[in-house]
Amino acid sequence: MKYIDEYRDIRLIRALEKTIRREAIGSYIFMEVCGGHTAAIHRFGIPSLLPPNVTLLSGPGCPVCVTPVSTIDRTIELASQKDVIITSFGDLIRVPGSVSSLEKEKAHGADVRIVFSALEALEIARASKGKKVIFLGIGFETTAPGTAAAIIKAKESGIRNFFVLSAHKIMPPAMEAIICDGTEINGFICPGHVSTITGSKGFRFISEKYNLGCVISGFEPVDIMMSVLMLIKQVNNHKFLTEIQYSRAVTVEGNLKAQKIMDEVFTLASNEWRGLGTIERSGLKINDKYSAHDAEKVFSLKGLSENLRENTSCLCGEVLRGRKRPTDCRLFAGVCTPDNPVGACMVSAEGACNAFYKYRRNG
Amino acid sequence: MHFINTEGMDEFITLNHGSGGRLTGELIREMFATRFGMNEPFTDSAIANIKGREMAFTTDSYVIEPIFFPGGNIGKLAVCGTVNDLAVAGAIPLYLTASFIIEEGFPVKDLITIVESMAQEAKNAGVKIVAGDTKVVEKGKCDKIFITTTGAGVIRDGCSHIGTAVKVKPGDRLIINGPVGNHSIAVMGARKQLSFTSQVVSDCASLNHLINRVLDTRCEVHFMRDLTRGGLATVLNELSAMTGMGVEVEEDKIPVDEPVKGLCEMMGFDPLYLANEGKVLIVVPPEECDKVMAAIRSEPSGEKAEVIGIITGNKNKMVIVKTLTGGTRILDMHSGIQLPRIC
Lengths: 363, 343
Hints:
- The structure holds 2 protein chains of 2 kinds.
- Chain A has a domain at 68-170 and 256-298: Rossmann fold, CATH 3.40.50.11740.
- In chain A, 39% of the residues lie in helices and 16% in strands.
- Chain A contains 16 helices and 11 strands.
- Chain A has helices spanning 10-23, 35-43, 63-66, 69-79, 102-107, 118-127, 144-157, 171-180, 192-198, 204-210, 221-237, 256-265, 295-298, 316-320, 344-347, 352-359; strands at residues 28-32, 54-58, 84-88, 111-114, 132-137, 162-166, 187-190, 213-216, 242-244, 266-273, 277-286.
- In chain A, the strands form 3 sheets. A 5-stranded parallel β-sheet of chain A has the order 2-1-7-8-9. Chain A has a 4-stranded parallel β-sheet with strand order 4-3-5-6, with helices on both faces.
- Chains A and B meet through helix 1, helix 2, helix 5 and helix 16 of A and helix 7 and strand 14 of B.
């Protein structure tokens, strides 16, 4: 298939493998901050193609994983209200909250539905007069424009029973938080799909301010190997730039239309990330113009319970910060499995623990 | 039993228990088989010896949304699925029963379409629908229509081992009769979940003629199972668990139609986990492989058959995929339904 086969060409991969081994004269740690990259890296067995002095580390790139327990708890609280239908992306319903999960509430009779997009949730609202349909919006710049478009469409079409609980986040502030946290890395494999929206310009400050390599990568093995090579060269030359490897999809400016839709609906606000805590200006809050569709404003929520219960042995937070690898966790593959997940990183196919479990159980 | 993840305190059935993956297996083993006194291996059909004749029995309930999809409907599915469960056990399917649970208000014209396609498919497969039951429930008590079919057939001579995998040996070849994933994608398209139209048609078909053709060659067939809900990955894992042997497949040998491949790449699905309704995995000794392949390819539902892998020794009891990049990865049983990428 075009645009796939050539990026999985074994000869190209072997050539890149050889060049990487030749160029990698020091020790390198690169972090990927996109769940799609985490899944692809393990699916294609990229670590086995790299020399031992080149390490890839998973960061906070999985939308389901970084959604904090408090968001799950708030959604569960909403799910228990009368005539409410909760809609969300599928994996989220399995993430444990402090005492329950949406999956469990669903089994108890709450109306929780899996949708593939915010627009699908809007259609449910249109078809369900008398019900209040709440879409739990998660994800980064990749999914946020879709949520924004649904909110605009709801307002324009007068669908007044459609609401969004926005847990959307943007990626660059989290990357900055990782750097300031002191995690030792030499560069980022920057997110591919996020960058199709934001353009490369959103990451430039990282290479300029922190002297770290940034390469926006595609999702095929040739893409990822090539991005690793580009990062190694930046480190070797002490010349740190924000480069685009995924040039067939990403530009410097990004998708201006999607950016405009996001600006129309959202404003930046501080936001809680699982593992990273609250990060200033990292969340997308629905602005006043669209407050009639903002679940935060329309529904009364009791507020956060004080004693949020997360399993204290779970290392999800540390994994998301790049401090620990999934196999460092003593719950990994024993107590915590995809069927019986303790932490969010084991739930989503884009989570580091899930990818490790699925493809590389033996480490 | 992992009914739900809350320190085992309170357990409920969740949708995941019905997804055909590991949790479904646990439910069958720990809930039903232990109480009903059923013994492993669990095969697609039960085999009973009645007056010196080996008979196969199977039953299956069909719930699908939407009930009409490109390539079929719930009625056709209810016949094909049960016929296939009999055929892969080495049986000649003979009789079916059909039970209907119908929601009040269901359009009669839709029921006619469904029942006529059941009749047509039964004729194609050469089985008779001989008994049935009908219940109508109040609106909201079921989703439009649920169908349960039960099938009976006669085991072909010397074929009772086929469902159990007891004859599978290292070196055996794995054959699949055509491209995987079409049924899943066709149904998703019909649910309008793909946000665009696709031309993918479900592979929903009765496989008993193809299987008969294979068994008529008198070649040794060591195992057969149809690929349904959990896709190829689940059947390969079941085979590995039943035999205690490793299974190795080559990713680039597994046929996937271009539109399905494209949609999978876009949505982030793995075609190896997608549902099928007209695909069968056949395991044969290496020396019989060519002859069996020729027989399969001579049938319309086997034209795109491929040899996809091999049974390895019993050292590594898992399913390994040789990836396109020359590496290897574990192909695990799936957990839950597949979901589109959001990142």
